[in-house]
Design brief:
The chain has 13 helices and 17 strands. The protein is α/β, with parallel strands linked by helices and 364 residues long. The chain has two domains: 157 residues, 3-Layer(aba) Sandwich (Rossmann fold), CATH 3.40.50; 140 residues, UDP-galactose 4-epimerase, domain 1. Helix 7 crosses helix 12. The chain is globular. The protein binds nicotinamide-adenine-dinucleotide. Nicotinamide-adenine-dinucleotide (NAD) binds next to helix 1, helix 3, strand 5 and strand 11.
Length: 364
Amino acid sequence: MEPEAVGFETMLVTGGAGFVGSNLAISFKKSRPGSRVIAFDNLKRRGSELNINRLKDNDVRFVHGDIRNPEDLKLKEQIDVIIECSAEASVLAGWGESPRYVLDTNLTGAINCFELARRHGADILFLSTSRVYPFEAINRVETVETVTRFEWDESALTSIPGISDKGISEEFSVSGAKTMYGATKLCSEIILNEYMSMYGIRGVINRCGVIAGPWQFGKVDQGIVALWAAAHVFKRDLSYIGFGGKGKQVRDLVFIDDLFELLKIQLSNLDACDGEVFNIGGGPDMSFSLLELTGICQEVTGNRINISAEPEGRPGDIMIYLSDLSKAQSNLGWQPRTDVVEVVDIVTGWIRDHERALYQVMLP
Ligand SMILES: NC(=O)c1ccc[n+]([C@@H]2O[C@H](COP(=O)([O-])OP(=O)(O)OC[C@H]3O[C@@H](n4cnc5c(N)ncnc54)[C@H](O)[C@@H]3O)[C@@H](O)[C@H]2O)c1
């Protein structure tokens, strides 16, 4: 599919001061200079305030508001497209504390955004997560251990629907515990489907694995590539947490600009992908273990840091996650292009360019 004809006059990006939202808002504005792009955010995420000037410099209007509050979402502009990127994006949200914020934002707040879409007749692209797939079922897949990473045992993959050596596909069962973060995202997906069915809203759901790139204010529970790169630049200690403390857990990664290309394709072909769900990531070719990420960060930064082992894991953590991209590749002709080393290189360059501002924000 061709990404050329992205047609909208006014786009609303919720979570628009966050990592994904700010990058997408600016990229969409640049791709369509005559359009209006509004970034809406309550600045809950530490560091997101650093994006306000950047948004303004790129002619994106910033609105300070909270998606939990329907009144804040009463915008005077007619909205054509909503990119829903606002969230409490931590998988640890609600552990050992009240889940109120994650429930109110990721579920009730998301519904408020769908309501806005209904009132305006706007199209919606929803940023969901690979965390809708249950962690116990994924961790039950037998693994083998290599020198630098865990891998799925190939012989175990044939008997489980939705998983293969290409990764986890949209067919993998969503039944089972998935963290409050994953559960709120899945509930929102279900409600969005009802909005699409009842009110004729066009929409697409993207279940993303790790997304990485500049302007991600990485922390231990979210934004692993930025966290790792920053720790190497600033020479701060890290830990390999869980799965024996060896750093062999594996993720795939999609670069933010590759994600933008995907959304551009979806927006310009909305009739064809209306109502579809896609697993989005880098796939097995763009995957890394923490141990491998350390090696890449050492190469790129020239620095070595202390990394301790914490064998005991965090609740809900996953040993291996790889996205099966087959559906997005075959239906949309989309292909992630930027590999892990390039992403680390770009993120490191960004950190070095903004060392003073990021030193405090990116504490491990
Ligand atoms: N970054 C990833 O690796 C990743 C992976 C899968 C899915 N996602 C999804 O992508 C979306 C964007 O994630 P991100 O990485 O940019 O996270 P982020 O934390 O950088 O951005 C989210 C933004 O939402 C804002 N926000 C939080 N609560 C809000 C509220 N109640 N009202 C208004 N704004 C609020 C935050 O201040 C923040 O700026 C999220 O929906 C997340 O679940 C991200």
